[in-house]
Write a structure and sequence with these properties.
The chain is 41% helix and 22% strand. The protein is α+β, with helices and mostly antiparallel strands and 171 residues long. The two termini are 39 Å apart.
Length: 171
């Protein structure tokens, strides 16, 4: 039975790789191509952009070094591939930071996105009471013609987290 399942997996995986992208008669092949196969789509020239949220905090008059928690989790995953959960810890961070980058500058501090990102940063990342928080959200765009990246700063905020109303409840 195990050999049959393994054979079916190999057959579907090879079919997913060999069939043209526009031809996918089975939803299973599309699912494999999108969620199961790690393959040639992880090439440098196919990466369009990467986002980075740098967090630092002020405690007892001293600023911490900026941390890119999602990148640190990725590095941890590369050293411990069985810790797949580490790859997903940054998903909410990316969602909240991107949501905040879409808010008009004049409405940031009263926005739901700001409250949620603050709550995530303080409760899930920093995990201690701090005097001030600094967050910087960057996006690196890959430039295939120069084989280089262009960096864009989407926002920079420094604020007192104690003065921000609570966001949604984190589990």
């Amino acid at each position: 039975m195990a050999c049959m399942l393994l054979g079916l997996h190999v057959f579907i995986a090879i079919s997913s790789l060999l069939l043209p992208a526009h031809y996918s008669p089975l939803k299973l092949i599309t699912f494999y191509r999108k969620h199961i196969l790690v393959g040639p789509f992880f090439q440098d020239e196919r990466i369009k952009y990467t986002s980075h949220l740098y967090v630092s905090y002020l405690k007892d008059g001293k600023w911490s070094l900026p941390h890119d928690y999602a990148y640190e989790n990725f590095i941890y995953y590369t050293q411990h591939p069985w810790r797949y959960d580490k790859l997903h810890e940054g998903d909410y961070e990316a969602y909240a930071a991107w949501s905040l980058s879409e808010v008009k500058a004049s409405k940031v501090h009263s926005s739901k996105a700001f409250r949620e990102l603050n709550q995530y940063v303080t409760a899930a990342l920093i995990k201690r009471a701090v005097d001030s928080v600094s967050i910087v959200y960057l996006r690196k765009h890959y430039q295939p013609e120069t084989d280089d990246f262009r960096m864009d700063t989407l926002f920079v905020y420094q604020y007192d987290p104690g003065k921000v109303h609570a966001g949604k409840k984190l589990d």
